[in-house]
Amino acid sequence: MTTRARRSVRTRLTLLYAVPFFAVGAILLLVPTISVDDTEPAGAGSGRTGVGVGVHLVWVVVGLPLVALIALLLGWFVAGRYLRPLHAITATAREISASSLDRRLALPGRDEFGELAATLDELYGRLRGSFESQRHFVANASHELRTPLSAERALLQLALDDPDATVETLRETCRELLELNVAQEHLVDALLTLATGEQGVARAEPVDLADVAARVVSAAAGDAGTRGIVLRTDLDGAPARGDRALLASLVTNLVDNALRYNRTGGRVEVGTCLDGAGRARLRVANTGPAVPPDELPRLFRPFQRLDGNRVRRGGHGLGLAIVRAVTDAHGGELAPAARPDGGLTITIAFPAPPRSTAP
Known about the structure:
Largest sheet: 5 strands, mixed
Helix content: 55-70%
Mean pLDDT: 79
Order of helices and strands: HHHHEHEEHEEHHEE
């Protein structure tokens, strides 16, 4: 089907080029005949004139098919030369698959074909990153889900193999199983939130980030008090457009991460405002362990922690990955920064909502 379409395009270009070639050739053949007929005086040399006109007519009859053939050959050649870069792009694109996305077209030139090749190269780069991220995510998710399942199986096996098991020991086993089950539910919920964020925003609505942040901070106040962490807010109006549930999940994960990876007596600061460009800005900062600046990008990938084996402390390593996915889904700009005295400052700027036009 592709070959037929390609040949059809070349055929149409051939006809498009052949028509002007044929027209020019036909004019060059007909002009001498018309000139001979117009320049001979009436009644003078009529026989010679008739012979001259006849010769030119024969030349026209013989030459027009020849001109048509030459025009078609020239059109076919020019169309082939014009479509050669497209053939190269098509052949290379066919050879590129999910296992060879590191290849690039690298077509030289700044014309339309060069722009097409550059666009496809950027697309292949994004696809490669997506495939690699998917492979890592599936592998890590499988490991994270396998660990609690193995623990549950071990607990059940111990309870069954214990000949002196009592009601109390069985109850304790059930309590441990319930805790593991709750952890699995949280993990599955986090995975679903991450997948939803990566799919994009299906329905956007007006959202004030200050209201969302106020609700999240209010819900996290008890946890902050239990950990001995001071929770401060500076919430100015920050209207934006997006999915309210996803934005609430974003703020929740930021605050939860700031509380979990903190120190006793530390603090968490949550602020919202509008910047000079009318964009809604969210800022969450905390005290805590020092974070190397070169480690910041890795922390926003699924199941990543500092030093590769960071203590969970109740988390699954998906919080900041969810933040990244929701930010990207809303077209926001994520700007993490390591604090000199320890901890992180994460600032997110969302696009300004469109202004409503008066009827």
